[in-house]
Amino acid sequence: MDRSTEIELIEELLGLHAQKAPFLDEQWTREPLERYSSPEIFAREREHIAATLPQIAAHSSALPAPDSYVTTEIAGRSILLTRDREGSAHAFLNVCRHRGATLVRGQKGCQLRFSCPYHGWTYSNTGDLVGVPHQKTGFPDLDRAALGLVAVPCQEYAGWIWLSLDTNCDIDIKAHLGALAGDMLAMRADEHQIFASDVRDINANWKILVEGGLEAYHFRVAHADSIAGLFPDNLSSYRCYGRHIRSILPRNTINSQADMPQDQWRIRDHANILYSLFPGSQFLVQSDHFIWIRGIPLGPDRTRLELTTLVPTTQNTEARRDYWRKNHEFTLLTLDEDFQFAEEIQSGLASGANAHLNFGRFEGALARFNRYVDDAIA
Q1: Which domain holds residue 40?
Q2: Any idea where the Rieske domain is (predicted)?
């Protein structure tokens, strides 16, 4: 964020802290239960959000060198990401054009060419069909140029590899991020390395998991044994940028800024900054590193989360290893507390106890997020 915004946010938080007042929206809202459980709504979300909008598929370091590749999943589709000899990133549907078998079964590696494990049709890492066994006898008039891998729009930006499954549209990540493009560049993800990554399969709707990070109302109670003592009770603020949200979760030390000159103010030293990039990624930015939370919706009540700690490349040293490991483990401990509540909420939807869920005035970011989902699938 730019310096004027940083000062504005610190001033806002200092004012709220001094008044012992939360950041409030005009009214509280009710949300229908079916948005978290309906197969029909989930199908529309997959079609109009996950399979259409640009989203992050991998950190640039997942393709560390020419001829490297990695596979991933988006909207139920297997995706092959490659880096060619010139260093450019590509994204393809991981499907052979012969009979539709999965082309690459491995998760990552280094290959110039990929041969289908079913019949051996072979493709270059730029997607060209370069080999067809028995082509002269079996496919005498086959046009290889017409049967290359199906490419999906892909762009490398701000240290990340982005793609969209909408093959009819160009991808413009700077435009997609809008006013948050500067914040993403300022994170300097291209100067960070993946320290550790874990996967969780959660029995909860993807939106419940996003909502869990958008408010501090639960900190004092839900995280009583972990982070509650580090944060003021129910103090946070947020701003919306298009469909993206930047939340500020101040720590108890934020009040120390009041006694310092403004030119020494630094929000990352006294608050966690959470970027919720619509639809699939959240970034929890802390003082010296950040965590990437990637959500992969699997069903109305199932979500896969990839939880990745990224640290500055210059500090990813043996001497700092124990420090980064403890940070990663503490993050997992805290998030696992949230995930347990998410699964309990999902389970309780069918109990008959509630006709809707309630979002308070200090939970306004949750309602805004759900309006963005509604608009996208309308």
Answers
A1: 3-51+178-377
A2: 54-163
Same domain, 210 and 333: yes
Residue 24's pLDDT band, with cuts at 50, 70 and 90, is confident
Say if CB 71 and CB 108 are below 8 A apart: yes
What's the pLDDT tens digit per position in 323-361? 999 999 999 999 999 999 999 999 999 999 999 999 999
Q: Domain of 315: which CATH number?
A: 3.90.380.10
Half-sphere exposure of 245 (CA within 13 A, CB side): 29
Boundary residue ending a domain (170, 202, 227): 170
Contact 305, 270 (CB under 8 A): no
pLDDT at 53: 94
Q: What is the number of domains present in the chain? A: 2
From the list 126, 120, 113, 125, the residue with the least C-alpha distance to 96 is 120
Both structure tokens of 320: 């700092």
Assess whether 195 and 294 both reside in one domain. Answer: yes
Residue at token pair 């006013």: 179
CATH assignment at residue 115: 2.102.10.10
Same domain, 193 and 164: no
23 and 146 fall within a common domain: no
81 — pLDDT class (breaks 50, 70, 90)? very high
Which residues make Cβ contacts (< 8 Å) with residue 18, sequence separation at least 6?
258
Separation of alpha carbons 146 and 148, rounded Å: 6
Q: 267 and 6 in contact (C-beta within 8 Å)?
A: yes
Residue 24's CB: how many other CB atoms inside 10 A? 14
Alpha-helical regions (H) of the chain: 3-19, 39-45, 135-138, 173-177, 181-186, 206-211, 219-222, 321-348, 364-377
15's CB contacts (< 8 A; 6+ apart) are: none
Has this prediction a pTM greater than 0.85?
Answer: yes
> 83: closest CA among 189, 154, 132, 173?
154
Q: Is there a contact between 306 and 296 (Cβ–Cβ < 8 Å)? A: yes
Q: Do 308 and 343 fall within a single domain?
A: yes
